[in-house]
Design goal:
Elements (H helix, E strand, L loop, with lengths): L1 H7 L17 E6 L5 E6 L15 H5 L3 E4 L9 H14 L3 E4 L11 H10 L6 E5 H8 L6 H4 L9 E5 L5 E4 L4 E4 L12 H13 L9 H18 L12 H8 L3
Parallel strand pairs: 3-4, 4-5, 5-6
Antiparallel strand pairs: 1-2, 6-7, 7-8
Length: 255
């Protein structure tokens, strides 16, 4: 079913692997009055947890321009080894490594384990996107400024992004940093907003990596990504709420 939904939305399912003996993981989302969500998960074990390095489509991974990943696959073996192998192969193939930790604390044995595992692959990434709440968690601080944020900078990093919800995002590179405001919308459901943001950014970046070195053009792309994230919050669901290019342009142009 999920592979079919990907195809319906123009996403190749060539890299999807099926496991006849395990279920697909499920996430149940409940919404609060302000559109923020609470998540419950159904797995243990789910098919993704059982993925092995030998099951990876290495040729497909080598052909990628950008390899994007989270941290949930670091939870257990064998999927942790598969995750690390995929990162290694993608990097050897010349891909940019993009990391969104996507913290889901209830899945981890402890906060300490989650923090350690998320940071264990931190210095491999070229691009990292975290939410302000994830940043608070990783740094174990309630108040975060630019100096404390940059304590997570590493020499391989090209772009560090901190999403701020309705306040937009902050960006940090080797040569410049700043803030891009978001758009005022009527929020219904925040599910998928972060994915919409980072997906649209990578969509723009995949054909022009030089954006990372040009602040004015990067700001325009981040404005576009903020618009995508904002529109996603105006509808219920994740994939059904993702905006079309015309919807994004209308928001950008104030239509």
């Amino acid at each position: 079913m999920l592979a079919g939904i990907l195809k319906e939305n123009g996403v190749s399912a060539d890299g999807v692997t099926l496991d006849k003996g395990a279920r697909t993981a499920l996430a149940f989302v409940t919404l609060r009055a302000d559109g923020e969500r609470e998540l419950m998960f159904y797995r243990n074990p789910s098919a993704d947890m059982l993925l092995t390095p030998d099951e990876l489509n290495l040729e497909l991974i080598r052909s990628a321009k950008i390899f994007h990943y989270g941290s949930i696959s670091l939870l257990v073996e064998p999927c942790r080894s598969a995750h690390l192998k995929a990162m290694e192969v993608a990097k050897e193939g010349g891909a940019l490594l993009s990391y969104d930790p996507n913290l889901r604390l209830p899945l981890w044995p402890s906060a300490k384990e989650a923090r350690e595992q998320i940071l264990s692959i931190w210095e491999k990434a070229d691009i990292i996107k975290v939410s302000d709440e994830e940043l608070n968690f990783l740094l174990e601080k309630d108040e975060i400024d630019d100096e404390s944020t940059l304590s997570l900078w590493h020499h391989n990093l090209k772009l560090l992004l901190v999403t701020l919800g309705e306040k937009g995002c902050k960006y940090y590179t080797k040569n410049f940093h700043g803030t891009v405001d978001s758009f005022r919308v009527d929020t219904v459901d925040t599910t998928g907003a972060g994915d919409s943001f980072v997906g649209s950014l990578l969509y723009k970046l995949v054909d022009d990596p030089s954006l990372l070195e040009d602040e004015s053009r990067l700001r325009e792309v981040l404005k576009y990504a903020n618009a995508c994230g904002a529109i996603t919050t105006t509808k219920k669901g994740a994939i059904p709420a993702l905006p079309t290019p015309s919807e994004v342009l209308n928001l950008l142009n104030g239509v």
